[in-house]
Structure formats: C-alpha cells, structure tokens
Amino acid sequence: MRRMYIWSAAVLLWLLSVQTAPAQTLREGMSGAAVAELQEALTDAGYLARPADGNYGAATEKAVALFQEDHDLRVTGAADEATVARIEKEDREKRRGGGVLLTAGNRGPEVAQCQHLLAGCGYLTETADGVYGPATERAVRAFQKEKDLPVSGIVDEKTMEALRRSGGAGKGELAQGARGGRVKEAQQRLQASGFLSGAADGVYGSQTREAVRRFQREKGLPVSGKIDDRTWKALSETPKGGHELRQGDRGMRVAHLQNLLTLHGFAPGAMDGVYGSGTAAKVRDFQRFCGMEPTGTVNEAVWQKLRSAPVFQGRYKKVMRMQSTAYTPYDGGGTGRTASGNIAGKGHAAVDPNVIPMGSLLFIEGYGYALADDIGGGINGQIVDVGVDDLDQAYRWGNRRVNVYLVQ
User: How far apart are the C-alpha atoms of 95 and 156, rounded to whole Å?
Assistant: First the structure.
C-alpha cells in the first residue's frame, strides 16, 4: 500500500510539473518546428515576408521586435509565451509597410540584389558585398525618408517595391556631370570589362564618358557617351569585377591587360583581345619581375601591379630628345586600332617611321613603355604621340619635351 502511495504521488508531481512548466522562449540562433510555426504566424500577421525556414535569424528577430513594439510588449526580439500568444490571437493585423524581408545581420545574394538597387538609386556607394551592415542600413533609411515610407532601416515589402520601381534602368539616363551610386555601379562594371582604367569614384567625368563610348561601340549600341536604358541593360549583364583572366579568355579586358603589359615593358605581341600563349608567357615574365609566382593567370594582385607606375629597366640602344603629345583611340574619327591593327590606348605610340622603325619598343620618360605601331599625319620628325585612354589623360599629358629610349 505504501508503495502505491509513493508511486501515485510521483505521478501527480510529474503531471503538475508538466502542466506548470513555462513555454520555451524562442530567440535568434534557434531552429526547429516551433520556430517555423512562429514564422508562419508572423507572416499571417503581416510582420514577416521571408519563407518559414525554421531558422530564427535576424529578419525573424526584427519581425518579433516590431510586433512587440506595435503591441506594447517588452521589446526584446525574443518570442516568449506572451508574445507568441498575442501573435496568434491577432494574426489578422497587417503591419504598415508589409512584412520584413531583410534587415541588419542578413547575408547572401538577396542582400546583394538589394544593395545593387540602392546603388542604382544613388543611396549606396559601397560595394555590393551581400552583407547587410551599417552602410546598407543607412542607405535604406535615407531611401525610406525620401520616399515617405516608415523609416525603419529594414527592407520590408513596401520598401522593396519602391526600390524596384526606382532602381537601375529606367530611372533616366546618366551623362557627364552626374554623381552617385549609379555612376559608381556603372564605373565598376566598365572597369571589370576593361573599358575604364580610372577609379570608380561615382563622378561621371570625361574619362567615364569615353569608357561608355568604347563600351557602346563594342556592343553595337548608339555611341552617345551617355548611359541610357539600353546601355544600362548591357552593363547589367557585365560582371562587376574580381574575375581572373587566364589563357583562352577574350574581350576588351584582355586587350586592356595586353596594353598594360606593354606599358610595363612586357609587350605580348599582338594586342587583339585574345589571351593566347604569347600573352600568358609575358604575364609570367611580369610576375617574375615583380617577385610573384609565375602562374600565367591574372588575379587582383597582378592587376594592382599593372596599375602602378612603370619602372624603367635600364636597357636601351639609343636615347632621343623629342616633342611629345598624346592621342586617344578615336581621335579624328579613328577606328580604335593602331596602324598595325592592335587595340589602341596606353602602351602604344605613333611615330615617324623614318625616325623610329615601326614595331620598336620604346621607353618614354614620364609615361612608360610603348610599342611604336602607329602613325599620324602630323607625326613627322622628332615627335612621339603617346597613346592614352581618354581626353582627360591626353590633356594632362599635354605637349612636352621628353627623353625617348629605343629599347629594341
């Protein structure tokens, strides 16, 4: 009898403990079915617009905090028993602005896409890195304030809808004199495809205009130097950088590489935008010269070296004192190629063949190395016309006296 009494008391105590145990508080970092149920309830209430994946992340925490704030609950971002009960009770309420899509702490391609839209509207100048950090939050707040949306710093459904209406192509063309995130976005894509060698600074100057003109010619677009809807669409299909180049690649970025190799004294032969064995060999030579592993592949470290000032290697056959001017690839209605058929720009020079034999490699004081593979009607006698990428560079070079070293 005593055993039965003890057993019955134990069962009773267990039942009481089960009935009185508090519900588990859900918080960031947790996962499981209970979290998924909470997310579905938040979605029904209009506070969350992300899929119910069962992971209590930054967006779920923010949605809970917003609900708590709107319903006079203690704002913690953690879903305790009282918060869950209130969410389930009032699941027909809809938050102004819609459910939370993205917020500070989120990462991934959805964040990067949002950042691209913010840059396209001119609110974000930092790189779209897929990390929802302080700069992205500030940009979202500025956008919301401008568009008369609730200023929360989170991307909800209303904010995303407004971003998609405002960002990227269709917002109006960009032309010289423009500034902001959209300009920087375009410059980064022009850099990545080899059309822009200057900085992506968000300022639409003559260098950017000439890069746009070269891009438009390459893509068969009307050559205006302005970024209209068609140009935006073509640019949007161009990666924004960070891509390596290796043997077998083709295009203007390869041509830009070949010209920069020449500028540093490592002329790869034909500069035609084709990464062949000759270009790969010169890349390896350049890497050895810089104390790098000779892989023949161009990564960001190689690009940085190529963007630095050329170093005179000291070998030459003859030195001449000459007058020097500069020209862009399309001066005087030019085709963008030198007289020898190479893609024009930095690393090339127009000379008088009676003074300097065509095909010679030169080192030009204050400029770097250049292949003498072009001619011009006004290039007679002791004159060397150095190739540059745009009018700004040409104006900066001006008309000067320089030492010209005949290397080979």
Answer: 10
| Amino acid in position 320 | M
Q: Per residue in 331-343, pLDDT tens?
A: 766 678 898 889 8
Is the pTM higher than 0.70? no
Domain count, the chain: 5
Place of tokens 């009481």: 16
Q: What is the residue range of 353's domain?
A: 318-406
Q: What is the C-alpha separation between 259 and 387, in angstroms, rounded?
A: 10
Question: Is 29 in the same domain as 45?
Answer: yes
Rounded Cα–Cα distance for residues 63 and 391 (Å): 52
> Last residue of some domain: 95, 113, 141?
95
Residues in the chain: 408
**CATH number, domain at 149?**
1.10.101.10
Tokens of 239: 């990666």
- What is the Cα–Cα distance from 301 to 286, expressed in whole angstroms? 12
Whether 9 is in a domain gets the answer no
Pinpoint the alpha helices (H) of 147-270: 157-166, 181-192, 206-219, 229-236, 252-263
